[in-house]
Specification:
Blueprint: H1 2-14, E1 16-20, E2 26-30, H2 32-39, H3 48-64, H4 66-74, H5 78-89, H6 94-109
C-alpha cells in the first residue's frame, strides 16, 4: 500500500505518461504545460535513470517503514488502552500489564527497519 501511494505521488508530480512500445522499450510522454506549471518554466525533465533512481529510493524508504503497518494491525485498540489506563489509575494494573506485554511482543516480532 505505502509503495503504491508513494509511486502515485511521484507520478502525479511528473506529469507524464509512459508509452510501452512493441519492441519492449518505452518512452516518456511529457505533458509540458502541466509539468512546467508544477515545477517551473526552467525546470528540466528528469531522465529515465533519475526516475528509476527515485522509484528505487521511495521503495526502499517504504520497505523500511513497513513494520509500522504490521505493528498497527496487531496493537491493542485505542479503546482497550483507554480502559487499561483508567483501570490502572484506579489501582488495577492487570490489563495495562497485559497490553504492555503484548506491545513488547509485537515490537520484537516486527522490529524497526
Amino acid at each position: 500500500v505505502y509503495y503504491t501511494e508513494a509511486i502515485n505521488r511521484i507520478d502525479n508530480k511528473l506529469r507524464a505518461d509512459v508509452q510501452y512500445n512493441d519492441d519492449g522499450t518505452y518512452e516518456i510522454l511529457w505533458d509540458d504545460v502541466a509539468y512546467k506549471a508544477v515545477h517551473g518554466v526552467d525546470q528540466v525533465h528528469p531522465s529515465v535513470a533519475d526516475i528509476e533512481a527515485m522509484h528505487t529510493t521511495v521503495k526502499a524508504e517504504m520497505d523500511a517503514l513497513a513494520y509500522q503497518g504490521k505493528r498497527q494491525e496487531e496493537y491493542p485498540s485505542i479503546e482497550d488502552v483507554t480502559v487499561a489506563l483508567a483501570e490502572k489509575a484506579e489501582g488495577d494494573s492487570t490489563m495495562w500489564d497485559e497490553i504492555t506485554a503484548k506491545r513488547q511482543a509485537i515490537k520484537i516480532k516486527y522490529p524497526k527497519g
